[in-house]
Known about the structure:
- FAD binds at residue 197.
- This is D-amino-acid oxidase.
- Residues 6-355 form the FAD dependent oxidoreductase domain.
- GO terms for molecular function: D-amino-acid oxidase activity; FAD binding.
- Its cofactor is FAD.
- By secondary structure, the protein is α/β, with parallel strands linked by helices.
- The chain has a single domain (5-366), classed as D-Amino Acid Oxidase, Chain A, domain 2 (2-Layer Sandwich).
- The protein is 24% helix and 28% strand.
- The protein has 6 helices and 15 strands.
- It has helices at residues 14-23, 64-82, 104-108, 151-164, 271-284, 342-366, and strands at 5-10, 29-35, 88-97, 127-128, 140-149, 168-171, 192-195, 212-222, 229-232, 241-247, 254-259, 261-262, 300-311, 316-323, 329-336.
- Strands 3, 4, 5, 8, 9, 10, 11, 12 and 13 form a 9-stranded mixed sheet that branches. The chain has a 6-stranded mixed sheet with strand order 6-2-1-7-15-14, covered by helices on one side.
- Helix 1 (14-23) links the parallel strand 1 and strand 2.
- Helix 2 crosses helix 6.
- The longest helix has 25 residues, at 342-366.
- It is elongated and about 65 Å long.
- The two termini are 21 Å apart.
Amino acid sequence: MAPQHKVVVLGAGVSGLTAAFTLSKNKNYSITVAAKHMPGDYDIEYASPWAGANYLPVGKEGTPSQEYERNTWPELAKLAEQHPEAGIHFQDTLIYRREKDKGPVSEWFAELIREDAWFSKVVPNFKVLSKEELPEGMDGGTSFTSVCINTAIYLPWLVSQCLKNGVIFKRGVVKHIADATSLHHSGQKADLVVNCTGLFSLFMEGVQDKNMYPARGQIVLVRNDPGYMATTSGTDDGDDEAVYIMHRAAGGGCILGGCLQADRWDSAVDPNLATRIMKRAIALTPSLVPEGKGIEALDIIRHGVGLRPMRKGGIRTERETIKSPDGNGIKVVHSIGHGGYGYQTSWGCAAAVVKLVEESLAERARL
Length: 367
């Protein structure tokens, strides 16, 4: 039997865990997941636990993001159908459009709100809403079946699948990406590092991707259940504020959001924004509360703030050789810049990572 290739996956968010799980299906790889934050942690640096999370495609046609989203849907649907222990369920979803909306949120949702969206042929039950089906103030809309993910169940489920396949997990903090080669559980240098560090790639020596930037998000998690998911193309409260309602599987509560505040790093909850979020959610989905009631009828579990790892130019999934401080070349595969769409691109990105790892290690073997 050929010796195993030693691989370190740096980062334990949804992108890193999905990549590690997919790689672990190949027994020629000996894999360590090394990360500062692990599932169960809640920190503004660690984006994945704060996500809704769901499948609302935003990748423009012909882009890598579209391919990743297209390739991720079958995997999420299969988990919802066949693996309830993963914490994913199907949800009826309503998407509303207002002609007047401009700014970062409406730009982000530009593909999502199209009545001829490419994903209309991917997700089940896609239809254009009639005028009679639209709430007051909406100019158009669609509905389809999506999924919503209980991140508190799903992230540990991904860990469990990795562990079952022999992946080793360890805490680790690096300064330079070359430091990750010393984190393999064998005690030997890793042959390759998969970089899934999100926003840390902005600062990590050897990478320092200046196209990375944060987009602050704020949510309210409540026990109320409207019975469906909904979002709109914008709000009247500012072009970087949004309204979305996502009901997580398996008792995970309902996420009310939100905002898309570029280059904002602050972790404190803004109480005024929280009030606006709750009011907008009830206005869009009145079934959240008893008839005639307002935000006082919302049963709040907690407030949360997270930083989406955005990237100018979109997701970066590529391989390169990086020179370490001692002059040696380090084989690296990047999977970063997943913004607010990490879950809905996760399986597609993981497949791309597998291909790049294979190419990189084959190239190394020829040298």
